[in-house]
Every structure is written in structure tokens, then in C-alpha cells.
Design a protein that fits this description.
The chain is mainly beta and 1005 residues long. It is 8% helix and 37% strand. It starts with a strand and ends in a 17-residue tail after the last strand. This is Tip attachment protein J domain-containing protein.
């Protein structure tokens, strides 16, 4: 057994069944079997198939020696490796009356048995989904973004074979600079698509009224692709069932069709109005007339005229046009001669052939006719009439000769010559009929049968029929007839023209009996698919569009494998769902001859705004077999109101045509790299991003510490090219956004002086000091010993400004093994060097920050802010001491300070600092002992006016050994307590944390 599969996927699991199976009748080699059954097969060519015999793949060079028989298990799979003629040869492999198809490129089309057509050029570009109830994107700096849909995308069929998708998308709030080169579909630049892609960018608030791409087309989600894998709703379920008249033979006469034979029947569903396909062949004489084939014979059934659209059938069917018509010319008698004839030896013994049909052939002057009798002809008159009709074209007629049947040349001029019969029935002619050979007449003119020539629709002459006697069927295109009535075994019909109109002037058929007839049509009522609502409740639409998709193309295949034209129709109907009542029905007829996927988009303009409901159905049955006619309802959408413009948003409207130039990557989204344009700052600047956030919230400049912001910008951000690039797409607290902006600049958000401010973290002198005189609780110190659990590496993830992808930079200290690595993500940082520097800060803190501090003060701590470098002191003996400055007196080049406490001068090389009234601290200086509770300090040590009248907090002197005057710390948090005091938390401060702030990362591995 040879089985042919569309794919290997699912074969072992039983999910994939063979397209076809073929029995090997006798032992043969694989190559021999293919050569015998595959037209044009060449064993030396490259073939797009793989053959397995008993589960083992057989190389192509072994096909000619591998023997198979009826018990051999052979499986054939498609394999995408053929090129040129090889691929074409395997597109359709004829096996007797069956065709093998190797499905290669149409995943959504049903398996077919003819030449594989091309997939439709689908437009697959899409934007991001619409983000309902989510904030509109806000780009600060530069960032790669995937714009968000403002209205549903619309895909339409254009010129049958092409799909065009239109998109309208929000890029971001604000004014943007977008280089044309940054626009891409996936990774493919817009420019690569040429005229296949068109787009327009609209600034904030610009009108889109004149751009049809920006219209709000609502898609009905019930119509479209299904879980079964089809591209749309299959209309086969709405089609009428196919049925056929069953009979051994058919008698046609005038407008009546009668069924004959054993148990003949018409389908029960056939009634007045049913359209059927009725094929009634006859024997014609074909000759060559120049570039045409001339067809002569009984053409009264056809009633031809020049320009008539017909279908001609023999072994295959072809649609043609009548090019010329010659009418029947009666004979002109000749002189002399005698007719040829054959006369029965006895009268017919029966006229009823219902229980046993008889068939024989009559040949005269090289013309052979097959005569069949299969019903009750009642008497000699009925018998003579039916035989005469079947002798048409031979020059003979049947006659009643004294009760015996005679076949004779009826009129002069006689042709003469012998009449021969094969298997002449004894019931009619007796056992010994008499044959008389006539003689030809002199002169005269024999009758000229009516004849026609045909051409293709484009005017090219048709000459595709062999000369001689041919059995042909010819009728209006499509062989369509409408039933007028059905009574018992007889139906009355009228023919339908190629335009679908009933031909009331048609005179009917010439009476004859047929064995090779065909009569088929609808076997049941047509069902509607739907109803489907065109738009949501409480919405009103002004227009609608619907798409019809032929996933297998539209055509049929002749017996010889040629593609032929096929016509299929659908009906669409709609009505106002609020009113109900009568439907408005629209019919679409499609006539094509292509195995390629095709689609059509149709439009309706409603008389008034309404909420429509739709139904659709196909009119003709699904034929299958040699016909490719799968129809799917691909889409339905309605036009709803849209705003016409989008205040504050930059918008892109675009359309893109599908095709083989579209990127095949799974991510096929529209993207670009815009840069935000700030009103009062350079693009991408950290200062500009911070000011924009504040200004967009209505924060006045008077509430912003512009001096601090400008200072950090001028001292660090601008000269060091530190930028902020970020696309904000989620709801985030303003504080977090501002902190993220300043983090990208290695700084921190601050609220010093009651203003929104910024502080640069890094090497800095102490800003202040907290001594035991300000503390309401003892200073608590904690030490964390080095541990294997400490992070010895940091990996920093950031979006690189050049690749626009997430990159990772590794931060390691010399000797680090990276056994435990912390991974952090930096928003807004777009260069590798800055990401590395920030990561190294964090790593150095992990490695070298061991001390932590906590203490309570009254309101004194509120003069500081987070990340301030301060000095903490305690009153532990031999460490530091603090005292209030009670009096100040200048003595020559020094100040004499009177203190509230006695200092311990036994320390080695003591040093001191003074806490100013505002909490800040002076530089370190060397004090001198001046006696009980007094010290001398240099004039340069005091740079402020010391107030000693207790009208404000007194200044403090902090005294300690030269190795360390207090504990260097960085404030991490200041929290108010319920009793009005403040809780201060701090960590160790060390310049080593910032040792890499000006260094560069090692080259990327």
C-alpha cells in the first residue's frame, strides 16, 4: 500500500491521515511505479518528496532498485527541496482518474487533489494592541517603541490576490522627532517595502478627518478565523446538499426530462425554482475550418448565435464563445440512384424495454451512432420516433415498413453504400434482417447540417477537437436549467443563460434518449450563517464591509488535469436589528479559474445610522473532488464615529500591502525610535525630562530648586553626556519617575529647603554633624562581617541606545569570581559605560559598606536630607567628645572658645570640627588647649557668626583623635516619630564607593 501524506507532523500520533492511498497491483520498483503513474517523471531530477519503505527512508538513487508489492508499507512525504521543473512536475501527479497532491505551502486550505495554488499575499504587519484604560505612552528622551492602536486595524482584499492592512496608532504624547530610517516592520525598514507601504505622521492635535486610514472600523469578532484553523467562517455549512437524478437513461423532448430504467428517481427536495446542472451529450461531426474546429449536427437544442457564451464538454469541459453559425440547408434531389436500407425480417416482438435495455450501433458512410432503448415505447410509432432521433447525423431515418422496422436513406440525393449494424437486437429486426446496398444519385446537393465554430473569450480561435464523429455536450455556460415542475419521473425545465436569466424563448430539446447524461443540483434548503451583530450595543454604524475568501482558489479540473473556470455565488443580507422585519439581500457571483487563494471585500452604505445584523450563505453546493470552491466569510466590520484628531498625541496612519518582502520573523510589529522634543531643554537631557514631568503636573518653577538642578546639570550631566531615555507605559508615582530620572544621572531626588531638588551622589565633604547634644537616644552602630553570601558581582541590564535591545554589562572587582551576582535593571540608562559605573557603585557598597547607624534626634535632623554625607559622634571615652560653644573671643590670630564640656587632651594629635547653627559643619582643623573648658582655634576655622545668647541652637565643637573625628555616614532615611522626634538611619560613607565613577568598563566579551 502506498500512502501519500501532506506532512510528517502527527503521522506517528495518528493525527495526520494520508491524502490518498494506492494499492500496488503487482510487484514493481519504486522508480517504475512512479514512472508509470506520474506524468513526466524523471528519475534523475530533484524531487520534493521523501519515500519511506517499511519505516526506513530510501534515497532517491535507490528508487530504481527498491522492489515493492501489495504488502509493502510505503509512505510518501513532501520535502521542500525541489526547484524549477521538478517542483512543477510534482504539483499534480495523475494516477488514472485520481491526482496526488503534495501540500507544500498552504497551511489553512483544505487538502486538495489538484495542482497547488499560491497563498494569498497576506498583510501581516500589526501594531501593539490597544491598551484600554492604560495611560498613553510618554517618551522621555529617546526610546524604541511599538505604537499602540487607536482604532482597530483593517485588512482588505485588493485585486483578489493582495491584502492591504491599514493602521492608525499612537506613538507617544508630545512633539517627537522621528528619523524616517528608524521606522521598521519587525527588523525590516519601511524603505525596503517601497510603494507597498505608505505612512503619514501627524503632530499632536492634527486633523485626521481627510485620512481614510484613521476611520474607526469596528470588527465583528464572531466573523473570522476559527479554532479549526480556517481563515474565516466556512460557508459549507450554509450550502445546500448536492444531489442528482438517478436513472439508467433519460428521455428528453422539448422542455421535458423523463427518467428511465430501474428505480429512477428525482431528489425529494427538487421543486419549482430549483436550479440544476443538466448535461445532454449528442454526436456531432467535427471538421477543420481554417483555425477553427467546425462542429456540425443537431444544434436545435442549443439555438446558437454569434457571441453566445457556452460550455463545451467531451473528456473535459471548457468555456468558449460562439464565433460563427451556419444554418441547416435542406437537400436538393439528384438524378437516379437508390437508397441504402436495412429491413427487419419480422415485426418487433416488444416495444417495452423497461426490464431489459438494448443497445447497438449503426454505421453508414463512416458515421457510427449508438442506439439505446430502455423504456416502454408503446407502439411502432414510438419506436420509430426514438430511433430516428438517435440516428441524427447519419443520413438515415427509421420507418414502419408493413409492420417491420426499416432503416433507410429518406431523400435523394442518395449516398449509397452499405449499412452495417453491431449487435442488432432480434426483438426489433428478427433473426435475419435484409440489407440493401444503394447506389449514389447523380447531381443534387445533400443536406448541410447546422454548424458552429467557437473561440476563446479573448477571440482566439478554438481548434482543440479531433476531426470525425465526436460525442459532445454543448449548452449555455454552466449547463444550468431551472425546474418549472416535477411530476413523477418527468420534470419540466427552462434553460438559464450565462447571465443567470431564464431563457423563455428556448424551444426545448430535440427528442432523444440518453445514456451518458448528467443532472445534479441542490438536495436541500440553504441555511444562513449568522445572525451576527455588526457593532456593539448602543452604537450606530453608517457603513459596513465584509470579506469573502476562497482559501483554495476557485476552479475545477478537467479529466486531463487542465484548470477550468468555475462560478460560485453567495448571498449576504442585513437589516436594522432595532426594527427587525424584512432583510435586504445582496448576491455576489464569482467566476474564476485559479487554484491560488483569492479574496474580495464588499462595502455597504446604510441609508441611516443603525445597528445592523448580518447573515451569509453560499448558493451552490460544495462539489469537492475535481472542484476547488471552499468559501469562507473572512471578516465583517462597521464604521463607527471617531474623534478626527488626538489632542497632545503624535499619531501615525499607514497602510501596508502583504507580499514576499515582508519579514518572516514572528515579531512583525511596527516600531520606531522617536526622540522627545522639550520646550526649554535639549532633547534627551536629564534636566529636560525632570522639568517636563514637573511642568506636565502643573508644578510651578517656584517650587523647584532650579539652582540645584542647573548646578548638577552644568557640573555633571551635560559635560559627562549623561542622558535619560525611557518610554513610560505604565501608571507610576511621580516620585518614582523623578527618582528614576535622577538615578540615570547618578543622582537622587531631594526635597531640601521645601523645594523639589536634586543631589548628586559621589565623593563629597561632610554636610553636617550630629553630636550627642542633638541625640535623644544613644547612637546605635551595627557591623556586618564579610560572608560568602555577600554579592561579589553585579549584572546591570539596560536598553542600549544603538541596538535598542536589552543588554547586560558585568560589574566585577579584581579577583571576583562572580559566585553570587545581583542583577539590577536601569531605566533610562542607554549607554554601557554609565550602566557599568552605576553597577560598580552598587558592587563596591556590597563589598565595602559594613557599618550601619541609627539614632533619634529632636527636629535637628530635619536640616539634612537623604544621601547627605554627615559625621556622627557618640560619647564613648577616648573616641569623640562634643560641647556647646558658650562664648567666643578673638585673641590676635585665633579664637578663644569657651565650651560647656572639658575636652580630653590625652588623645594623639586631636582634631575638631564645628557644627554651625544650621547643622552644617566646618572643615577639619587642629585645636589647642587653652585651659579649663577653653580651646584656641584658627581664625580660618570659623566662617560664620557664632551666636551665644541661646536665641538659636548653639554651635557645637566636635573633638576627637586625628585618625577619625566621628563616624562618616550617609543618611538613608529620616522618619518622624510620634513624639515629634526624628529617627535617622545611615550607612557607612567611604570615597571607595565612587572609585569607578570616572573609569570605563572592560571590553565586552
Amino acid at each position: 500500500m502506498i500512502e501519500i501524506y501532506p506532512s510528517r507532523i502527527g503521522v506517528k500520533q495518528g493525527d495526520c491521515v494520508p491524502l490518498e492511498s494506492h494499492q500496488v497491483k503487482e510487484p514493481a520498483t519504486l522508480g517504475g511505479w512512479l514512472s508509470a503513474n506520474a506524468k513526466g517523471f524523471d528519475i534523475n531530477a530533484v524531487h520534493p518528496i521523501c519515500i519511506e519503505v517499511e519505516g526506513v527512508a530510501v534515497p532517491a538513487d535507490k528508487w530504481s532498485v527498491t522492489v515493492i508489492d501489495r504488502d509493502t508499507d510505503v509512505k510518501i512525504f513532501p520535502e521542500a527541496r525541489a526547484v524549477g521543473a521538478a517542483a512543477a512536475a510534482w504539483a499534480a501527479v495523475a494516477l488514472a482518474a485520481i491526482s496526488i497532491v503534495l501540500i507544500l505551502t498552504m497551511p489553512k486550505a483544505k487538502a486538495a487533489k489538484q495542482q497547488q495554488g499560491d497563498d494569498l499575499d497576506a498583510a501581516t504587519a500589526t501594531g501593539n494592541h490597544a491598551k484600554l484604560n492604560s495611560p498613553i505612552r510618554e517618551i522621555l528622551g529617546m526610546a524604541k517603541v511599538y505604537p499602540d492602536l487607536l482604532v482597530p486595524p483593517v485588512t482588505r482584499f485588493v485585486n483578489k490576490r493582495t491584502m492591504v492592512t491599514t493602521l492608525t496608532m499612537s506613538i507617544s504624547r508630545g512633539n517627537l522627532a522621528i528619523p524616517p530610517s528608524s521606522w521598521k516592520v519587525g527588523d525590516t525598514p519601511f524603505a525596503a517595502f517601497g510603494s507597498d507601504l505608505n505612512y503619514t505622521v501627524y503632530g499632536p492635535g492634527a486633523s485626521l478627518v481627510g485620512d481614510s486610514r484613521a476611520r474607526n472600523w469596528y470588527p465583528a469578532t464572531e466573523v473570522g478565523g476559527t479554532n479549526a484553523g480556517t481563515a474565516g467562517l466556512d460557508l459549507s455549512s450554509s450550502a445546500p446538499a448536492d444531489a442528482a437524478a438517478l436513472a439508467d437513461s433519460m428521455l428528453i423532448s422539448g422542455s421535458t426530462v423523463s427518467l428511465l430504467g430501474n428505480s429512477p428517481t428525482f431528489p425529494d427536495a427538487w421543486e419549482a425554482g430549483t436550479v440544476v446542472r443538466l448535461v445532454t451529450p449528442d454526436t456531432f461531426t467535427v471538421t477543420t475550418a481554417g483555425s477553427y474546429s467546425r462542429i456540425a449536427g443537431a444544434l436545435a437544442d442549443l439555438a446558437p448565435f454569434v457571441g453566445m457564451k457556452v460550455t463545451l464538454g467531451s473528456d473535459s469541459e471548457i468555456d468558449l464563445t460562439v464565433a460563427s453559425v451556419l444554418p441547416y440547408v435542406a437537400p436538393v434531389p439528384g438524378i437516379g440512384g437508390t437508397p441504402s436500407m436495412v429491413t427487419g425480417s419480422a415485426s418487433p416482438t416488444t416495444y417495452d424495454f423497461t426490464s431489459g435495455a438494448v443497445v447497438w450501433s449503426v454505421t453508414f458512410q463512416g458515421v457510427t451512432k449508438t442506439i439505446s432503448l430502455n423504456t416502454d415505447y408503446v407502439n411502432m410509432s414510438g419506436l420509430v420516433s426514438t430511433i430516428t432521433s438517435q440516428l441524427s447525423g447519419t443520413g438515415l431515418v427509421a420507418q414502419d415498413s408493413s409492420g417491420r422496422l426499416r432503416l433507410i436513406e429518406p431523400l435523394s440525393p442518395y449516398k449509397g453504400g452499405a449499412i452495417s449494424q453491431t449487435s442488432a437486437p432480434v426483438q426489433i429486426f428478427g433473426s435475419g434482417p435484409t440489407y440493401i446496398v444503394g447506389t449514389a444519385s447523380a447531381g443534387g446537393t445533400p443536406e448541410q447540417l447546422a454548424s458552429i465554430t467557437l473561440s476563446f473569450d479573448n477571440g482566439t480561435p478554438f481548434s482543440g477537437i479531433a476531426a470525425g464523429q465526436q460525442r459532445l455536450s454543448i449548452a449555455y455556460r454552466g449547463y444550468r436549467f431551472q425546474i418549472v415542475s416535477v411530476s413523477g419521473l418527468t420534470a419540466t425545465v427552462k434553460r438559464i443563460t450565462d447571465t443567470g436569466v431564464v431563457d423563455n424563448a428556448w424551444a426545448g430539446f430535440t427528442a432523444r434518449t440518453l445514456l451518458d447524461f448528467s443532472m445534479s443540483g441542490s438536495g436541500g434548503a440553504i441555511n444562513w450563517l449568522g445572525s451576527f451583530m455588526g457593532c456593539p450595543e448602543y452604537e450606530l454604524a453608517t457603513e459596513a464591509e465584509y470579506d469573502v475568501f476562497f482559501s483554495q482558489g476557485l476552479c475545477y479540473y478537467s479529466k486531463s488535469g487542465n484548470i477550468k473556470t468555475s462560478t460560485k455565488s453567495i448571498e449576504v443580507r442585513w437589516r436594522d436589528s432595532a426594527l427587525g422585519g424584512a432583510w435586504t439581500t445582496i448576491t455576489h457571483a464569482y467566476t474564476e479559474a485559479t487554484p491560488d487563494q483569492i479574496g474580495f471585500t464588499h462595502k455597504i452604505v446604510f441609508p441611516y445610522p443603525l445597528r445592523p445584523e448580518f447573515q451569509m450563505r453560499r448558493i451552490q453546493p460544495v462539489e469537492g473532488g475535481q472542484v476547488r470552491d471552499a468559501i469562507q466569510w473572512y471578516g465583517l466590520r462597521t464604521l463607527l464615529p471617531d474623534p478626527g484628531s488626538y489632542e497632545g498625541i503624535t499619531v501615525i496612519a499607514m497602510d501596508i500591502r502583504g507580499g514576499d518582502r515582508l519579514s518572516a520573523q514572528s515579531e512583525r510589529q511596527i516600531n520606531c525610535v522617536p526622540t522627545r522634543i522639550y520646550d526649554n531643554a535639549p532633547a534627551r537631557s536629564i534636566k529636560g525630562a525632570a522639568l517636563h514631568v514637573c511642568q506636565s503636573l502643573g508644578i510651578d518653577d517656584s517650587l523647584i530648586d532650579m539652582d540645584a538642578l542647573n548646578a548638577v546639570d552644568q557640573d555633571y550631566w551635560t559635560p559627562r553626556s549623561e542622558l535619560y531615555d525611557m518610554s513610560h507605559e505604565k501608571p507610576t508615582a511621580v516620585r518614582e519617575v523623578l527618582q528614576g530620572i535622577f538615578t540615570a544621572g547618578m543622582s537622587h531626588l531631594s526635597s531640601g529647603n521645601g523645594l523639589l531638588s536634586v543631589k548628586r551622589e559621589g565623593i563629597q565633604p561632610p554636610r553636617g554633624v550630629i553630636t550627642p547634644h542633638e541625640m535623644t537616644s544613644e547612637l546605635t552602630s551595627s557591623f556586618t562581617a564579610p560572608s560568602p553570601d555577600d554579592f561579589d558581582g553585579v549584572d546591570v541590564e539596560y536598553i542600549d541606545q544603538y541596538t535598542n535591545r536589552k543588554e547586560t554589562v558585568k560589574c566585577r572587582l579584581p579577583g571576583s569570581l562572580g559566585l553570587k551576582v545581583d542583577k539590577i535593571q536601569l531605566d533610562g540608562v542607554s549607554d554601557r559605560t554609565r550602566a557599568w559605573r552605576i553597577g560598580m557603585r552598587q558592587l563596591r557598597k556590597y563589598q565595602f559598606s559594613r557599618w550601619g547607624y541609627s539614632v533619634d534626634t529632636e527636629m535637628d535632623a530635619l536640616v539634612f536630607d537623604d544621601i547627605d554625607h554627615i559625621t556622627l559622634a557618640d560619647d564613648i571615652p577616648n573616641t569623640t567628645s562634643s560641647a556647646l560653644i558658650m562664648e567666643v573671643e578673638q585673641i590676635y590670630s585665633q579664637y578663644l572658645l569657651t565650651l560647656s564640656e572639658e575636652m580630653d587632651w590625652s588623645m594623639v594629635a586631636p582634631r575638631a570640627v564645628i557644627r554651625r547653627h544650621d547643622g552644617t559643619v566646618t572643615s577639619l582643623f587642629e585645636p589647642k588647649d587653652a585651659g579649663f573648658h577653653q580651646v584656641l582655634v584658627p581664625l580660618t576655622a570659623i566662617d560664620f557668626d557664632i551666636v551665644t545668647d541661646l536665641s538659636i541652637e548653639p554651635a557645637r565643637l566636635l573633638f576627637g583623635p586625628s585618625e577619625q573625628v566621628g563616624y562618616p555616614a550617609m543618611i538613608t532615611e529620616i522618619t518622624p516619630n510620634q513624639d515629634g522626634s526624628c529617627a535617622v538611619t545611615a550607612t557607612e560613607y567611604s570615597p571607595v564607593f565612587y572609585a569607578d565613577d570616572d573609569n570605563y568598563p572592560p571590553p565586552a566579551a
